[in-house]
Amino acid sequence: MDIISKTIYTLFSGRLGTIDSYSIKSTDIQRFQLMNLLRQARRTEYGEKHKFGEIRDYKTYSERVPTVYYEMLNPYIERMIRGEKNILWHSTVKWYAQSSGTTNGRSKYIPVTQEILKHCHYRGGLDAILLYLRNNPQSQFFSRKGLVLGGSHQPSPLNAKAHSGDLSAVLLQNTNPLVNLVRVPCKKIILMGEWESKMKEIVKNTVNKDVASLSGVPSWMLAFLKAVLAETGKKNIREVWNNLEVFFHGGVGFNPYLPQYETIIGDKEMRYMEIYNASEGFFGIQNDPADKSMLLMLDYGIFYEFIPVNSENQEVLPLEDVKTDENYEVVITTAGGLWRYRIGDTIRFTSLHPHKFIITGRTKQFINAFGEELMVDNAEKGIKKACAQTGALVHSYSAAPLFLSNGKGVHQWMIEFEKKPASLDDFASHLDNALQELNSDYEAKRYKNISLQRLEIIEARKELFADWFKKQGKLGGQHKIPSLCNDRKIMEELIELNRIV
User: Fold this and answer.
1) What average pLDDT does the chain have?
2) Backbone angles phi, psi at 213, to 5 degrees
3) Residue 286: how many CA atoms within 13 Å on its side-chain side?
4) How far is CA 415 from CA 221, 393, 400, 491, in A?
5) What is the mean pLDDT of residues 382-411?
6) Which of 292-296, 345-349, 365-369, 463-467 is predicted with the least confidence, judged by mean pLDDT?
């Protein structure tokens, strides 16, 4: 480890002891988080409505405070944006992370308090680096540059007292200026609003820098790296940045992209580390290179609850009651003023000491039109296996159900290939077989084509998904297309756009 990295690691390595204590103190840590949050918000309007000051245990909290979706908190958030204080949180809230994903397609504005910035988002970033350095003691991390590919929305005023932007832009506006010493590109370029122009400027600003780390969403980072090769004429990224050592990624499943990264970077020595950071909070970090699951971060001003996906009565469980190998919807209470908030993500625990998990999808990203209960995790693993068996590479995909006139159904997959398989029919068969192996419900519905026929693949033209994002005004950065949809709205839009050459 170089002298700068070693000094910083030594200064902050005490945090690793706290993280290691998650294995034996998870319940105590989480209950402290809950009671501290209730104490801070007891005099807010929401706190007084639900008598936070009288709550002394989790059972009372779960009985008094309802679980909510964004739409249910939106009236409170709108008042906060207008400048009203002590509504959901006790401190003044000046920043809101703009995020898409509501049922009506409108943007969400997630409060970003100073507490959630400091004790969640920034702590999460530092913890990710500390865990990486512990696993890689030869790293030169802080003596070189870190390239961060953020969102495409500049911060903009909602009114005289409140501003919004992509989470990455909000974090940038509030971060310590010293971070600029190790990060590229410069702040002016990072905050450019138009994605295509921004991409060109980032390439020009970074190709001559000594970059050691990358951070961003895999799909958009891949597009950026291709632009770097086009600009430099190099065969692979290793020829551009020979000291590149790690990619911190999140936002979408990485499995389908890994073969492409190994090819474009130029070797298999590159390290990949997944993080789970959303507008609502920083939740997980991959702490073991040999284990793809992530460690649930327990002391970030967040209290976690979980709803079993297949639960008929929507029973809500605290962390101490979860089990491995079961899908759960995540419910969070945070120092950002979100109280029993149903974030929409689903996870599956792989370990309980400490609590480690993988992301399995979104509550609104699945296909269950015929009782098949297909999740994003199944889709990603199926795509990876089909690619390995056919030599194909997938750039982007989205799938949706189609009801046939014979009363049966089929899943349609719109797939944009980076490298097309020799036979689309063979690829479809391999993908269909993989999904049957991964999902017993899908297998049952596929048995003798009882209710579900073999999936269909529509080959997407080049840049189809980029064009779809552009049409939605969501080109670049942190935006992700739904991998699985239980209706055909997005699929029909893609099919129509696919006809335009």
Assistant:
1) 90
2) -140, 150
3) 19
4) 19, 10, 12, 11
5) 90
6) 365-369
Structure tokens at 156: 């903009």
273-322 residue pLDDT tens: 999 999 999 999 999 999 999 999 999 999 999 999 877 778 999 999 99
pLDDT at 102 over 60: no
Cβ–Cβ under 8 Å, residues 468 and 493: yes
DSSP 150-178: --SPPPEESSSS-EEE-HHHHHHHHS-GG
List the beta bridge partners of residue 109: 98
Encoded tokens for 314: 């929507």
Compute the distance between CA of residue 93 and CA of residue 461 in angstroms, rounded to an integer: 44
Q: Residue 199 to residues 194, 237, 245, 262, 297: CA-CA distances in angstroms?
A: 9, 16, 22, 22, 32
Let me know: does 163 contact 95? Beta carbons within 8 Å: yes
Please give the distance of CA 436 from its chain centroid, rounded to a whole number: 26
Q: Backbone phi, then psi, for 74, in 5-degree steps?
A: -55, -40
Give the integer Cα–Cα distance in Å for 212 and 132: 13
* Cβ–Cβ < 8 Å for 250, 275: yes
pLDDT in tens, 459-501: 999 999 989 988 887 766 566 778 899 889 999 999 999 998 7
Closest to 70 in 3D by CA, of 110, 34, 37: 110
Is the pLDDT at 407 greater than 70? The verdict is no
Which pLDDT value is given to residue 478?
Answer: 60
- HEC-encoded secondary structure of 101-131: CCCCCCCEEEEECHHHHHHHHHHHHHHHHHH
Please identify which residue in the block is written with the tokens 């070797």: 267
Give buried/exposed letters for 4-35 (b at 16+ CB in 10 A, else e).
Answer: ebeebbeeeeeebeebeebeeebeebbbebbb
The dihedral of CA 132, 135, 136, 142: what is its sign? positive
239 has a pLDDT exceeding 60: yes
b/e for 437-473, b at 16 or more Cβ within 10 A? ebbebbeebbeeeebbbebebeebeeebbbbbbeeee
Report CA dihedral (462, 464, 467, 473) to the nearest 10 degrees. -140
- Sheet-wide strand order for 317-318: 183-184, 145-148, 211-216, 246-249, 271-278, 281-285, 294-296, 355-362, 341-352, 327-334, 302-308, 317-318
Read off the pTM. 0.82
What are the pLDDT digits (tens) for 148-184? 987 655 667 788 888 888 888 788 888 776 677 788 8
Q: Which of the pair, 260 or 211, is modelled with greater confidence?
A: 211
Task: Calculate the CA dihedral of residues 191, 194, 197, 201 and round it to 10 degrees.
Answer: 10
Give the contacts of 403 (CB within 8 A, at least 6 positions apart). Answer: 369, 409
